[in-house]
Design a protein that fits this description.
Blueprint: E1 3-10, E2 16-19, E3 27-30, H1 33-53, E4 68-71, H2 74-89, H3 93-100, H4 104-110, H5 119-128
Antiparallel strand pairs: 1-2, 1-4, 2-3
């Protein structure tokens, strides 16, 4: 599970400022603690999407995430795993499309966090990179 720690502090204007030390670009606020935490989840996902768009490495969360935990959605985490496999293998999106025998826009959608990709498509992309998806379930 990809879980980042968020810090909340009361701002001078009475709102709550939320930041994520592992992702310095993530800064948001809320009128209440709950609203700040809800917003920071969206901003973390948007930030990670920007890392992918700019072809930057995804920062790993600190070992001790802190009191406020922001867990990346499972589908987004799978897309990040695919992105990292592409980077580690030095394979371009075009080459992956060729290996999968699909059109390049289909690979773009597999890396788009807002697109509801199917699990079998992500598995096929990972297989084309010599990888496999392993799923586990843990108690909450």
């Amino acid at each position: 599970m990809l879980t980042y720690g968020a810090r909340l502090r009361k701002d001078t204007n009475g709102t709550f400022l939320a930041t994520v030390p592992d992702l310095p670009e993530v800064v948001t606020f809320g009128e209440t603690r709950e609203e700040a935490i809800s917003r920071v989840r969206d901003v973390v996902e948007d930030c990670l999407a920007e890392y992918v768009a700019r072809r930057r490495p995804i920062p790993r969360p600190a070992k001790s995430p802190g009191r406020h935990r922001v867990t990346v959605p499972a589908l987004t985490e799978m897309k990040i795993a695919l992105y990292e496999a592409l980077r580690s293998e030095g394979v371009t999106k075009s080459e992956l499309a060729r290996r999968m025998n699909v059109h390049p826009p289909q690979v773009d959608r597999l890396l788009d966090f807002k697109h509801a990709s199917r699990l079998d498509q992500i598995e096929a992309a990972l297989r084309a990179l010599g990888q496999k998806l392993v799923v586990s379930i843990e108690a909450a």
